[in-house]
Amino acid sequence: MPDDTQRLWRRFKVWLRWRRHHAEIAEEIAYHRARKQEAFEAQGLSPADAAAAAQRAMGNSTMVREDARRVWLAGWLENLWQDMSYGARSMRRQPLFSAVAILGLTGGLGFAAAAFSGFNAFALRGWNVDAPERMVTLFAAVPGVVQSRFESGFSLDQVAMFEARARSLDGVIAYDRTRPDGTGSLTAAPVRAGYFDVLGVPLARGRAFTADEDRVGSPQPVIVLSHHYWTTALAASPSVLGTAVRVKGVPFTVIGVAPPEFRGTDFVGVDGWIPFTAMTIVRPKDRRSTTALSHSDQCCVNVAARLAPGVSMEAAASELSALLAQSRRPGIDTVEKRVVVQPFTLIGSAGVNVTREVLPVFLLIGGGVLVVLLLACANVANLLLARAASREREIRIRLSLGASRGRLVRQLMTESLMLALIAGVPALLIARFVPPLVMRTLTTDQFALPFSTDATVVGFTLGLAVVSCLLFGLMPALHATRTLTTQRRRLPLRSVFLSAQVIFCLVLLVSAGLFLRKIETERMTDLGFATTDVTELTVSIPANVDEAARGARLQSDVAELAASLGLRQVTFRDDGPFRTGARRLRMPGATESRTVLVVQATPEYFKTLDIPLLTGRTFAPRASAPAEIVVNAMLADSLGGATKAIGASVVIDSVMRTVVGVARTSHDIGLEQLLPAYYEAFAWTSAPKVIVRGSPEGARRLAAALMERDPSLLVSIKSYAWYVNDALSTSRFAATIAAAIGALALVLASVGMFGVFSYWVRQRQHDIGVRLALGATSGHVVRMVLRASARAVGWGLVIGTAAALGAAQLLRRSLGDLSPLDPAAYGTAVLVLVASAALATLWPAWRAVKVDPLESLRAD
Amino acid sequence: MGVDIPVAGVHSPIDYRWEDALSAKDAPALLPGTLDLLVLKSLTSGRRHGYGIAEYLGEHSDSVLQVGESSLYPALQRLLLDGFVKAEWGTSENNRRARFYTLTAAGRRQLTAEREGFERMVRAIQAVLSHA
Question: Are A374 and A511 part of one and the same domain?
Answer without folding.
Answer: yes
